Amino acid sequence: MSKADKIKARAPRGFADRTPADLSATERMLAAIRESYELYGFEAVETPFVEYTDALGKFLPDQDRPNEGVFSFQDDDEQWLSLRYDLTAPLARYVAENFDALPKPYRSYRVGWVFRNEKPGPGRFRQFMQFDADTVGAASVAADAEICLMAADTLEKLGLKRSDYLIKVNNRKVLDGVLEAIGLGGDEHAHQRLTVLRAIDKLDRLGPDGVRQLLGAGRKDESGDFTRGAELAPDAIERVLAFTAAKGVDNAATVENLRGVVGSSTRGVEGVNELAEIATLVASSGYEDRVTIDPSVVRGLEYYTGPVYEAELTFQVQDEDGRPVRFGSVGGGGRYDGLVGRFRSEPVPATGFSIGVSRLLSALQMIKSPIVSGAEKPGPVVVLVMDRDQIAAYQRMVSTLRQAGIRSELYLGSSGMKAQMKYADRRQSPCVIIQGSNERERGEVEIKDLIEGAKAAEAIASNAEWKAARPAQFSVSEDKIVDAVREVLARHFG
């Protein structure tokens, strides 16, 4: 192919590759979350990446039609299929499909990739990982309170200090009461209510002034893109913003402030009473310093019907350029009593919580949490190839190491000694095995400890000293190769 015909190597916008270090850190993080969820009695289940589009429903946070916000395609029978945009809608389908066989309440957790066909940007990807836990079949807000306690315990298990985060709780019924009071009750105002909801959900990112624009005529962002607003009257805008600012000095004070905001709205009063009950349950468990009622939390998905919650990181760090970074929300969820009922004749209460794995991982790496910044696994021991006609002998060494449970590989390239050593360094090998003709005649191998050698190299001033010292390199008989390599690994990795 000519240079002009070469395909440009590039990842699609909004999608990212992950390195071995990223994968290793993620695995440790997921293991800690899994352990926390299982401690609360949740069990694993897995649903497919692809669902029928109508099963997902019109619940996307930033789009009104599923085929605009999700990746969709038609099957050979002309059925529309979509990549899942979260893990909750597929769970609702799974529970409905297996309803009679599942214990109720049904407690499950799921981890996996989700996909959003939305405009990518800094920290905003079209493919990202979530880790959910849900209780289906429990109408009591005690289930919501328990989810909040578990979220707090999980963040601490991941290495966050108690002062580093808050679990914020609100209730969509309270907001419904406020919207009824400003004339947005009834099905005919459903679209406008959803626009208000999405505007409030951006409060943390845009601040009151930005949300005020989205509640009114609309807002143009930094790129010049215009988002149409909810077209509320000025007094209605101020009443909605007053609702978001109703937080008091403690949970009890916030509850009382919200009673004043909802007035005589039956649904609003019901939501405030549920928040009061959650506050009591949280306090009885000793979590009142970690779980707080916050009216600014509404969540962007339309299917929430009651309590909603977010896990917010409160600390600020600096990036590589010294700029301040605040991560904000790294997880959230709420009650969605109507979602499973879409598939069944009777209502099925449900509540759940989702952790944004990638965002939380970035935060944990910033604070050097031991969960994600622990010692990496050593690379493979590399058996170097000094004589091409002895490949079988070198392969026998590799097989001996592998049978002993030692990660190892034979160098399969065509380069010489120097390039092979550079390759071993890039593979982060703890040591290499060297056998030339002289060693073979003696029935020995040379083992070079690359980690110890790097330390010694820092202290050796000249090339002559290096050759005289031959740092961290020693000979053993070929039948002792396993014991010698284990000794090197134990020295550095315990």
UniProtKB/TrEMBL annotation:
Its EC number is 6.1.1.21. GO terms for molecular function: ATP binding; histidine-tRNA ligase activity. L-histidine binds at residues 86-88, 116, 130, 134, 299, 303-304. One of its GO terms (biological process) is histidyl-tRNA aminoacylation. Pfam families: HGTP_anticodon (PF03129), tRNA-synt_His (PF13393). GO terms for cellular component: cytoplasm. InterPro entries: aa-tRNA-synth_II (IPR006195), aa-tRNA-synth_II/BPL/LPL (IPR045864), Anticodon-bd (IPR004154), Anticodon-bd_dom_sf (IPR036621), His-tRNA-ligase (IPR015807), HisRS-like_core (IPR041715), HisRS/HisZ (IPR004516), HisRS_anticodon (IPR033656). It is found in: Cytoplasm. PROSITE patterns: AA_TRNA_LIGASE_II. The keyword Phosphoprotein does not apply. Keywords: Aminoacyl-tRNA synthetase, ATP-binding, Cytoplasm, Ligase, Nucleotide-binding, Protein biosynthesis. It catalyses: tRNA(His) + L-histidine + ATP = L-histidyl-tRNA(His) + AMP + diphosphate + H(+). It comes from the Bacteria. Residues 27-378 form the Aminoacyl-transfer RNA synthetases class-II family profile domain. Homodimer. Belongs to the class-II aminoacyl-tRNA synthetase family. HAMAP family: His_tRNA_synth (MF_00127). This is Histidine--tRNA ligase. It comes from Microvirga vignae.
